[in-house]
UniProtKB/TrEMBL annotation:
This is Reverse transcriptase domain-containing protein. It comes from the Eukaryota. It comes from Clastoptera arizonana (Arizona spittle bug).
Length: 133
């Protein structure tokens, strides 16, 4: 595989007013793709979710709520989250991942430190590269 800049394309949201564009990036050609896939495998095997508020996909969600009994005083709600992933605070998310790994995984502290470095925002990589002695 020869790493290249990931291509960007747009998918029109025809069901929305003014038809906004959803950006889609194919990261499979990105230089860090293989590293990200390996990290995903490690994290999925080590992270412990302590609540039942997450689902893998819409099919799992449908199966979860299909047999749910809704009481008269309860209301089902649906939210259309705009720009969800662009608004996830990276620093706080990395801290949560590290905390979870420290509490629940069998990874050595050094391995968790490497994961912390890998998950560091790219701007800090540039800083470390240009300012290291």
């Amino acid at each position: 595989m020869n790493p290249t800049a990931p291509p960007l394309r747009g998918l029109p949201k025809v069901h929305k007013p003014d038809i906004p564009i959803r950006p889609l990036v194919n990261y499979t050609t990105a230089p860090s793709y293989k590293l990200a896939k390996k990290l995903e495998t490690i994290l999925k095997s080590q992270i412990v979710l302590e609540h039942n508020y997450s689902v893998k996909n819409s099919h799992e969600l449908v199966n979860e709520i299909k047999n749910m009994e809704i009481k008269p005083h309860q209301i089902l709600a649906s939210f259309d989250v705009v720009n969800l992933y662009t608004n996830v605070p990276v620093t706080e998310t990395v801290a949560l991942v590290k905390d979870n790994l420290e509490k629940h995984s069998n990874l050595l502290p050094e391995a968790i430190g490497v994961i912390d470095f890998i998950l560091m925002p790219p701007a800090k990589w540039v800083y470390l590269t240009t300012h290291s002695g």
